[in-house]
Structures are given as structure tokens and as C-alpha cells.
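[Meeting: bench + compute handoff]

Bench side (C.D.) handed over the final construct sequence. Compute side (W.E.) agreed to return the predicted structure before the next meeting so the bench team could plan truncations. Sequence as handed over:
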Amino acid sequence: MSRLPREILEVSFRNALDSTSTTTRHLLLGNGFSIDARESFRYDSLFERAGGFSPPVDQLFRDLRSTDFEAALENLSRRIAEAKDDHPLVAELVEQQREIRQAFLTAVSRVHPDSSTDIDDEEKANCAAFLSHFVGTNRDLGTRNKNFRGKIFTTNYDLLLYWCLVKYGKRLNCHDGYINPSHTDEYGVWRPTSAPRLLYLHGALHIFRVGSQHRMNRYQGHRRLIAQTRRRLGVGEFPLFVSEGSQEMKRKAIDASPYLTMASDALDGALKNSKAALFIFGHGLGERDGHLLKRIGELRIGSVFIGAWGGRAGPSGGAVERWAETWWQERERESLPYPLNVYVFDSSRFSVWKRRFR
């Protein structure tokens, strides 16, 4: 087999769109998408709003010299595996994990805007314009019996994306698969029929497991969605939420959930299309999300466009290069005859919510 192309090209976001105008585009969103709207979603800000920790957990963060919740959870997962025969210690470490997960959710609910009206109409319109490059009626392109609509995958837990899609649902035609039979129902119930176009890969604040069902909070009259979520947190109910620190533990948590398994399979389905393009925006490309990122090299997707702050020379440039090399090596190792083109655009020159291009 001839050597596949192995070069990272820098492009502008506009050029990325122009070069894929007749290509199915899928979108993978990370926390930078929400930070772009509200700085309060940065991990340091969340840590400050989490409240006090027990002495062992407080010491853990001090030892790590980090405010990264996932790093703390990963550390505890490793220590639990090492102490598997020390049952009292394992129980203590598991309780620390529970405390950190709850603190993270509490922090998110505290920094989260109270209502969709806190994201103004112009911001939501700008976000909808961004999303329309991937989903929506303008991706039909006037072709006969064919459209180029992709799917939106997100690892975020907040409601900002959901709020935008609720307002522009008809234009974007991007549903989440939760059926709400009547306007008075408390929940929308997920029906495992076909994969929707919006998928929460790690769960979300407004999705709860109730018995054997996965249910999504819906608007009830004047009861705001985030208020419903906070009420459920207050009575000890826990959202569907992948908070494990390591990629192995994340994979295990996903496999244990029918909804998350469906979302994961939908991502695989998107990545199996060798003629499609995947756009990654606001994602840190960290190793803890290797369970998602490795599949780019293992499957057939033809092009990947990565938004990196400062472009290839920015702080994420090294991660872009490492992952690109990993993907190319995987395809060569498995003798996969599918070339992968990797591009980088400078996300600091582009804002989803402010609609600025430079």
C-alpha cells in the first residue's frame, strides 16, 4: 500500500467551510464552546464555585496543584485500582470520588445562566448560524434525494447548546431523540429507535436515569429547566454524567448506559464515512478523551478540521500534532486504505457566539 498523506495544513475557518461545501460535516464540541459564551465555565471558575471540600479531597487538589476535577478523579481511580484488596481504603476513596462529582455538578449549576433569556437573542442567532454549517435545511444544497446534514456531538454538560437548538429547531432540524408526548409532561423519554442529530457523548445536566429509562427534563409552564435540574440535585438525584477521570473508566461508564452507548455508536457511524469531514471546536484534545479521539484513526473519516487557540503554533499545537501522528500510524498499522487529511484553524480568530471572523 502506498504511503498515505501525513501533513497538517493550516487554514482559516472560512476556507475550511469553502473546501467542504459539498461534504457532510459533523461537529464535535468541547468545553471551549461554552467558555466562548461565558468565561465562568472555565475549570478554575468552576472550582471556585464548588464550595468547601472535606480535608482529604482538599489535600488531593493541593497535592495535584491543579483545579482540574477530571485530574483528581483520574488520580482516585488509579489509587482505587492499586488498593483493591484494602476494602476500607477503597470505600474511602470511592466516597471522595462521589464528593468531587457532586461538587462539579453543584459548581456547574451555580455558574450556569438561570434561563435561556440570559443568552441574548443575538448570541443564539450567531450560534445557530454556526451550527447551520453542519445541520439544518441549508445543508440540503438543492441536490436530488440527497442532503449533506451531519450530526452534532458534544462532551459538554450544560444547556447552552440545547437552548440554541430549542429556539432555532425548525431551521436547524436537529433533535435530541427525547419524545415529549404533551406540554405538561415532566420529562421527555428517550426512545431507542434511531440516532438523533444531537448527541451528548458524556451525558448532560438535564438528563436523568429514572429506573430503566433515560429521561430529559422539559419545560413545565413557567418552571425553568435549570431550576428543575437544581431541584433534582438538591434532593440527591444525579444526572447522567460521565465524570470518570481516565479514558478506560469513561469507556466503562459509557458501556453501562444504553443512551451513551447509542451516542457512542452514532459517533462511530459518522466516523465510518470516508467522504465526510469532522470539525472539532473547543476541545482540549486531552488524553482523558482518548476513548473518543482514537477512533478517528481507527475508522474511515476523510478529513478532520481542528480549532486550536492560536493555530498550530498555539498551546494546543503539540496535541494536534500528537493526535495526527497517532491517527496516521493507526491507519498504516491496520493497512486501512483511507487517507486522512488533517487541518487546523485558529479558533482565537473565530467566535461562535460573537460571530466575528478575522
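W.E. noted at the follow-up: Residues 37 and 294 are 28 Å apart (CA to CA). C.D. will use this when planning the next construct.
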